[in-house]
Design goal:
The longest helix is centred in the last third of the chain and has 15 residues. Helix 3 links the parallel strand 2 and strand 3. The protein folds into 2 domains: about 160 residues, P-loop containing nucleotide triphosphate hydrolases (Rossmann fold, 3-Layer(aba) Sandwich), CATH 3.40.50.300; about 70 residues, Conserved Hypothetical Protein Ylqf, Chain: A, domain 2, CATH 1.10.1580. The strands form 2 sheets. Strands 3-2-1-4-6-5 form a 6-stranded mixed β-sheet, with helices on both faces. Strands 7-8 form a two-stranded antiparallel sheet. The chain is about 40% helix and about 15% strand. It has 11 helices and 8 strands. It is an alpha/beta fold. About 0% of the residues have low confidence. It is elongated and about 80 Å long.
Length: about 280
């Protein structure tokens, strides 16, 4: 499969971020804890030079806890502030304000010396599509102030949100980067649901996911689907189809339906807490 996706509204979103970055004190980037490198947009690093940076490892409820701890240490070592959150349940969200003020304390001190008081810290919130940005903002602000949806591209324009007298947030639409240099990155983003389904081959994606799970999380497929993990990956998809009664006319296996079940159950954590990459 070839992954390339850069619709027009993403070019516009990137330009808007470039225009607004000079107003910003700190960039808060949400990444998906299951793919903390594949869901991190390298464009943001060049856009946010010389700004305080906070990385939020979101959806920790779906990720492998031990690997999440490794990623937290990895990003801290690179000079980022890091926090683990589950924006849906609100886990870890209350601590974010304190981290933002801590990350910007030099800026606040500089302002104080210049006699500038009570100027709020301005934070830009960024993240690729479907990483849970809108849900996080709603959880942080405590009311539904942005649209949320479980599909890419719900946030279309920018909006300023006053969190309190100390912090203002600039929300931005989710952006992917123009081209995936590494097709594995595209595949991982497709697995977690950050790319539009219409352009993807679900059966191929499911077969590759089976291969990954066989190698990295032995026994997990057998536990969920009662399959023989020593079998070939295509055969395993057939076994999932059989065990979940996915059939078409003539009692043939419906591989597409079985693939859909596998991908959905991976995305909502029913198979288990699985992280797709390690530092």
């Amino acid at each position: 499969m070839q992954f390339q996706w850069y619709p027009g509204h993403m070019t516009k979103a990137k330009r808007m971020m470039q225009e607004n970055i000079k107003l910003i004190d700190i960039v808060i980037e949400l990444v998906d804890a299951r793919v903390p490198i594949s869901s991190k947009n390298p464009d943001i690093d060049s856009l946010a030079t010389n700004k305080a940076r906070l990385i939020l490892l979101n959806k920790i409820d779906l990720a492998d806890e031990r690997v999440t701890a490794e990623w937290e240490a990895y990003y801290k070592e690179k000079g980022f502030y890091v926090s683990r959150i589950n924006s849906k349940k609100g886990t870890g969200v209350k601590s974010i304000q304190g981290i933002v003020l801590e990350a910007c304390k030099e800026k606040i001190e500089r302002d104080r010396k210049r006699g500038i008081k009570n100027r709020p810290i301005r934070a830009m919130i960024v993240g690729i599509p479907n990483v849970g940005k809108s849900t996080f903002i709603n959880s942080l602000v405590g009311k539904a102030c942005t649209k949320t949806g479980n599909k890419p591209g719900v946030t279309k324009g920018k909006q300023w949100i006053k969190l309190n007298k100390n912090i203002e947030l600039l929300d931005t639409p989710g952006i992917l980067w123009p081209k995936f240099e590494d097709q594995v990155v595209g595949l991982r983003l497709a697995w977690i649901g950050s790319m539009k389904e219409e352009i993807l081959n679900k059966e191929e994606m499911a077969i590759e996911l089976i291969e990954f799970l066989k190698e990295n999380y032995q026994g997990i497929l057998n536990q969920r689907y009662q399959v023989d993990e020593t079998a070939d990956k295509v055969e395993i998809l057939g076994q999932i189809a059989e065990n979940r009664n996915c059939k078409v006319k003539g009692n043939q296996f419906d591989y597409e339906k079985a693939a859909h079940i596998l991908l959905e159950e991976y995305r909502n954590g029913k198979i288990g807490k699985i992280t797709l990459e390690r530092p």
